[in-house]
């Protein structure tokens, strides 16, 4: 139903249409004759020339002008007739004699558009005697053209009412009246329905919902709050028939009856038989006396969802949603968004008349403004986002397998009602510091109340995703026990892996993914030619897939948070003491805003941060963060111990500054509390807004020890860990006393260097011996930390596990915070008045993450490298002895003596054997004959006239469905699907396809989303002109059939084929031509510019790393050849192409940088070569050359930068 926003949008739209119609009318009626008169003049002046046979250019122009004058005169006649008829509100002729139909139609459209606001500018009310009696009628199905159906009137549902008077100091609009009497302004149309046709004392009748209420009028309002609409009441909604008056248009009728846009009226009345044998076939042509039906779902608001899709029921017993096509929509996209079957949508809409007179005949051709019917079973629930009434509150998506959560004391059988969360900045969070219990109301309780929300006495309780795998399995010996158990275990593993990164866990996923990418890039830098980085073991694929999907989608959020926090420090450090850092206690982050909760008021803002009335600071996304990349390595980060603890269903995720709180006790459910502590440890170990941070685990978390050893430590000796923290506490206290600065100011001003390095100790007291003094030591440490009342660089997180004794120990520090996590994962923070869904990492997933990162950081030679794919020829003959090797390379791709390459290029004997093995002639001939179409495929790749689909992954991912003839590449999601299928040339099953592309959705295999995605890609790629078959064959409906692409062009595949054929060439020039052609296909890093949150399937097969390694190795082989034959400039060009595959020198492999060193030396640019050597050192974080890998050290030694090895 209309709201103030949609009503305003309609008025603006009408104003724009009136303006456009008026301008167009002026141009056609006045501008055309003026232009003809001033440029050509009277065309009859040239008539004598024409009669005399003198046909010159002026005569031709005059003849054309005469035709234009005639056309203008016809249009002017039509315009005048239409305008007079509309203004006098008299019937207009169906066809004006001497005027073409299109001219009359254009004139009518312009007149209707120019007079569109006439009902607003004239009186919008009429005397009671002239009011139209609009009897409601039962909604008929579309009537046959031969005989319109006659229906009996039905009474309007009765609602107990009471009259109220419009007064100067009371509500003056329908919206305000709805707010006052119904509690929700968006329900204003219910009041209008009660008053439609009501006569006032001054004789006016309320005919239009745009009527401006006047003082002294009386309107009816419900005597009591109406109950929710019943099914019987909903069934009583009926259509109304209205009689067309002179000057009426479908647009005006739609607006007057609050029936949405005119296309919906057109679809309900198209083809309708009208008096005199006429039919409604043109939405711009209706005559006075005709009857227009306002359908029931439009006459009332009960069938309209919040997204604007109307709901009705067809004659086939199927309920349906109706959606108006927007620019850029596709039929398959509309079906997928509403979970509908595409074939059913096509069948329901094929041949249905549309507002522009067309009808759906091609599923790929729909126009904006068309109305699409989405069929669904009559007893099905409305599609996502559909309300049953105007007051239904949106329901947030539930976590996977949510446990039933209830308020203490509530009935177990009654779940708590969900409340609509308020805006992110609506929560008053003026905390005064640690220990301020219950000083802040819950965020969930401060949003505006919805009419359908639960009463305040029953607040909502968030529920957490299930993080424990299902334990039930089919009975042993049952026929399907093995497969069912396997599927259940797989689904549970996927769900658990994704649940780790739910809510605020996306930031952690982004941080872990960045660490994984850095580690694997370092492995690529260390590897030798012919080797590549090994894929993760099968047991870690699910966690890596979740990491890639969620982390990729959240990387921008993590970067924004990092830059915003660092920007505060940069601004304060650059102010030379004029500004001070705010004392942050907590941070609330949403997609669009960051909010700092301060421990003490700080009214002086820093940068774009804005102080709020509740004492918080706010920064909106898009505002300047104050971050200065030049100061990143210079200034200390101000808030290194901020860590995520939980999130709300409304999209807020909360971080607590553990250092400012001092001591944090996690109590309640033991397993949930410990899982939260693991999450804190993982984020602290990897957050990018911390430096010099040390995290120590005691009593739990041994499985996490290898996650980030430089920052995270598991202490087997609790006493030693407590002693270390106590010593740091004393040391910092001495620095504070000597400098006279608190920790935050000292850190912000850069005073005392690393004295402010933080230390977070996470400890489970139950791990301490009962008879030891460690418990007393922990109590003393808690007292010391919380007794300072300010930051001490030390933070303690204690998990009590619900043990009463441990709670007493942890609560010894009176200033500490106590957080409770119940068995459902609901986290209560009394000091902030919040209830959140607690972040969780179970021990199994924590161990998997640690193992995944530990494997990635291992750069020991031979420990993680595996051979390249077997796509290059190998020798079938014994390897020559070392003494013969230097002269036995005649059948190799690098045929010169080995010693020449070792003296002139940056390679080794082992490299030569790996990248250019000796290949016998018979093997070369066999391989060369196996790819006769390669040259034609390469030529077609660059042919702009070719319509063969192209898939590019050697750089930014892009897919051109029609090859060079494509107007634009595919959208990111479709492109990923095409790339995925191209990486599986033998095909994939629907189940595997769904699992790889949507791993977080266990039921994707049988969903319409999967089928629609394949359908859309198949339609986009089209039909192969050479074979007459589709590039994505329709063979997935049969048992065992696979999705696969056929005969498409893939740059990575062309690269592989050119590289392989180069090995088979007899002539070195031909070999180099193939290899250079392959290198010219490289545009950047493989699989660059990925869709955020996509390409998680690369975890199973890291082809991105394979392609990077292959490109670097091929460039190295080309550079080695050119250096050996005295062409260093070409060697340099090859090495620079390899650099593009590794995103520049910072991520470059040692192989490519060493090629550049030798190329620069050979061109007498020694200093430039030295700069590349320094870059190698920076890439490895090495101070000395001895810290480099053995291969790099060996190559540089031959450059005489190092002494011979002892």
From TrEMBL:
It comes from the Bacteria. This is LysM domain-containing protein. Residues 869-884 have a biased composition (Basic and acidic residues). Residues 142-164, 350-490, 862-884 are annotated as: Disordered. Residues 393-402 have a biased composition (Pro residues). Residues 240-294, 321-374 form the LysM domain. Keywords: Membrane, Transmembrane, Transmembrane helix. It holds the Pfam family LysM. The chain crosses the membrane at residues 18-40, 60-84, 105-126. Residues 439-490 have a biased composition (Low complexity). Signal peptide: none annotated. It comes from Nakamurella endophytica.
């Amino acid at each position: 139903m209309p709201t103030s926003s949609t009503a305003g949008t309609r008025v603006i739209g009408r104003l724009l249409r009136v303006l456009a119609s008026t301008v167009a009318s002026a141009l056609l009626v006045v501008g055309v004759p003026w232009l003809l008169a001033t440029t050509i003049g009277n065309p009859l002046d040239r008539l004598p020339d024409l009669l005399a046979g003198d046909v010159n250019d002026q005569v031709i122009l005059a003849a054309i002008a005469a035709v234009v004058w005639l056309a203008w005169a016809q249009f002017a006649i039509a315009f005048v007739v239409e305008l007079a008829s509309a203004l006098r509100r008299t019937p207009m002729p169906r066809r004006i004699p001497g005027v073409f139909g299109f001219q009359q139609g254009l004139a009518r459209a312009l007149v209707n558009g120019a007079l569109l606001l006439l009902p607003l500018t004239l009186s919008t009310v009429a005397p009671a005697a002239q009011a139209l009696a609009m009897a409601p009628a039962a909604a008929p199905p579309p009537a046959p053209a031969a005989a319109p159906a006659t229906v009996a009137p039905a009474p309007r549902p009765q609602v107990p009412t009471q009259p109220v008077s419009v007064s100067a100091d009371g509500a003056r609009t329908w919206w305000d009246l709805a707010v006052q009497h119904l509690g929700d302004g968006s329900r204003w149309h219910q009041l209008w329905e009660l008053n439609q046709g009501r006569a006032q004392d001054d004789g006016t009748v309320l005919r239009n919902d745009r009527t401006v209420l006047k003082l002294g009028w009386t309107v009816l309002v419900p005597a009591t709050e109406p109950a929710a609409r019943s099914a019987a009441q909903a069934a009583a909604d009926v259509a109304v028939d209205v009689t067309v008056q002179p000057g009426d248009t479908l647009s005006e009728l739609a607006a007057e009856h609050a029936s949405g846009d005119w296309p919906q009226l057109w679809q309900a009345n198209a083809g309708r038989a009208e008096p005199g044998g006429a039919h409604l076939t043109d939405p711009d042509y209706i005559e006075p006396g005709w009857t227009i039906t306002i359908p029931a779902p439009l006459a009332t608001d009960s069938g309209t969802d919040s997204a604007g899709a109307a709901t009705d029921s067809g004659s086939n017993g199927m309920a349906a949603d109706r959606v108006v096509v927007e620019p850029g929509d596709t039929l398959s996209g509309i079906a997928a968004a509403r979970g509908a079957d595409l074939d059913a949508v096509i069948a329901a809409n094929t041949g249905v008349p549309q507002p522009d007179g067309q009808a759906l005949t091609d599923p790929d051709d729909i126009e904006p403004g068309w109305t699409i019917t989405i069929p669904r079973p009559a007893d099905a629930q409305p599609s996502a986002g559909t309300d049953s009434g105007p007051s239904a509150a949106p329901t947030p998506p539930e976590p996977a397998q949510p446990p039933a959560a209830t308020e203490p004391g509530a009935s177990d059988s009654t779940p708590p009602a969900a409340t609509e969360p308020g805006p992110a900045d609506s929560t008053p969070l003026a905390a005064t510091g640690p220990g301020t219990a219950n000083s802040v109301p819950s965020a969930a309780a401060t949003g505006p109340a919805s009419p359908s929300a639960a009463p305040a006495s029953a607040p909502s309780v968030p529920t957490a995703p299930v993080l424990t795998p299902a334990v039930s399995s089919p009975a042993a010996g049952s026929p399907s026990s093995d497969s069912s158990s396997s599927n259940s275990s797989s689904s549970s593993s996927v769900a658990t892996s994704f649940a780790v990164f739910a809510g605020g866990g996306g930031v952690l996923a982004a941080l872990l993914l960045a660490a994984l990418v850095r580690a694997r890039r370092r492995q690529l830098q260390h590897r030798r030619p012919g080797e590549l980085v090994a894929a993760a073991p099968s047991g870690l694929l699910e966690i890596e897939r979740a990491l890639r999907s969620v982390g990729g989608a959240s990387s921008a959020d993590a970067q924004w948070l990092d830059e915003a926090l660092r920007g505060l420090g940069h601004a304060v450090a650059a102010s030379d003491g004029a500004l001070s850092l705010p004392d942050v206690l907590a941070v609330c982050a949403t997609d669009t805003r960051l909010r700092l909760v301060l421990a003490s008021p700080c009214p002086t803002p820093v940068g774009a941060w804005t102080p709020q009335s509740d004492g918080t600071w706010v920064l909106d996304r898009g505002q300047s963060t104050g971050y200065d990349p030049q100061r990143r390595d210079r200034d200390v980060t101000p808030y290194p111990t901020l860590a995520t603890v939980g999130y709300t269903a409304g999209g807020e995720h909360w971080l607590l500054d553990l250092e400012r709180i001092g001591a944090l006790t996690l109590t309640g459910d033991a397993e949930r509390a410990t899982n939260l502590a693991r999450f804190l440890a993982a984020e602290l170990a990897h957050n990018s807004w911390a430096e010099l941070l040390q995290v120590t685990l005691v009593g739990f978390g041994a499985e996490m020890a290898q996650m980030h050893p430089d920052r995270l430590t598991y202490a087997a000796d609790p006493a030693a860990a407590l002693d270390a923290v106590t010593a740091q506490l004393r040391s910092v206290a001495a620095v504070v006393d000597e400098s006279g600065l608190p920790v935050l100011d000292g850190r912000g001003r850069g005073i005392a260097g690393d004295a402010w390095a933080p230390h977070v100790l996470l400890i489970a007291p139950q791990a301490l011996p009962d008879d030891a003094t460690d418990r007393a030591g922990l109590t003393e440490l808690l007292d010391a930390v919380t007794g300072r009342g300010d930051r001490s660089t030390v933070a303690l997180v204690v998990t009590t596990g619900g043990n009463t004794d441990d709670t007493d120990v942890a609560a010894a520090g009176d200033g500490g915070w106590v957080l409770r996590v119940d068995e459902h994962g609901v986290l209560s923070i009394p000091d902030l008045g919040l209830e959140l869904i607690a972040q969780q990492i179970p021990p199994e997933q924590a161990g998997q993450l640690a193992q995944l990162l530990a494997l990635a950081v291992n750069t020991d030679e031979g420990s993680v490298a595996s051979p390249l794919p077997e796509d290059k020829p190998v020798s079938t003959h014994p390897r020559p002895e070392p003494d013969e090797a230097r002269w036995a390379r005649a059948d190799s791709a690098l045929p010169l003596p080995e010693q020449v390459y070792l003296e002139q290029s940056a390679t080794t004997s082992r490299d030569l054997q790996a990248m250019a093995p000796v290949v016998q002639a018979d093997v070369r001939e066999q391989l060369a004959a196996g790819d006769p179409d390669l040259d034609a495929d390469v030529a077609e790749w660059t042919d702009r006239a070719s319509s063969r689909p192209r898939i590019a992954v050697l750089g930014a991912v892009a897919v051109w469905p029609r090859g060079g003839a494509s107007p634009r590449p595919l959208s990111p999601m479709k492109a990923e699907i095409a790339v995925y299928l191209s990486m599986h040339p033998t095909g994939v099953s629907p189940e595997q396809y769904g699992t790889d592309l949507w791993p977080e959705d266990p039921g994707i295999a049988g969903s319409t989303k999967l089928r629609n995605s394949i359908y859309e890609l198949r339609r986009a790629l089209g039909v192969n002109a050479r074979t007459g078959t589709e590039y994505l064959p329709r063979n997935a409906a049969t048992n065992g059939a696979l999705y696969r692409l056929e005969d498409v062009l893939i740059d990575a595949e062309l690269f592989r084929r050119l590289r392989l054929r180069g090995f088979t060439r007899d002539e070195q020039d031909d070999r180099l031509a193939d290899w250079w052609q392959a290198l010219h296909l490289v545009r950047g890093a493989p699989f660059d510019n990925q869709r955020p949150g996509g390409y998680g399937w690369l975890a199973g097969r890291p082809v991105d790393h394979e392609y990077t390694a292959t490109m670097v190795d091929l460039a190295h082989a080309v550079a080695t050849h050119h250096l050996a034959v005295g062409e260093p400039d070409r060697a340099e060009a090859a090495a620079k192409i390899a650099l593009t595959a590794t995103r520049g020198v910072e991520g470059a492999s040692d192989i490519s940088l060493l090629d550049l060193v030798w190329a620069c030396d050979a061109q007498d640019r020694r200093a430039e070569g030295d700069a590349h050597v320094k870059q190698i050192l920076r890439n490895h974080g090495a101070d000395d050359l001895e810290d480099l890998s053995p291969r790099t050290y060996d190559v540089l030694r031959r450059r005489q930068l190092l002494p011979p090895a002892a």
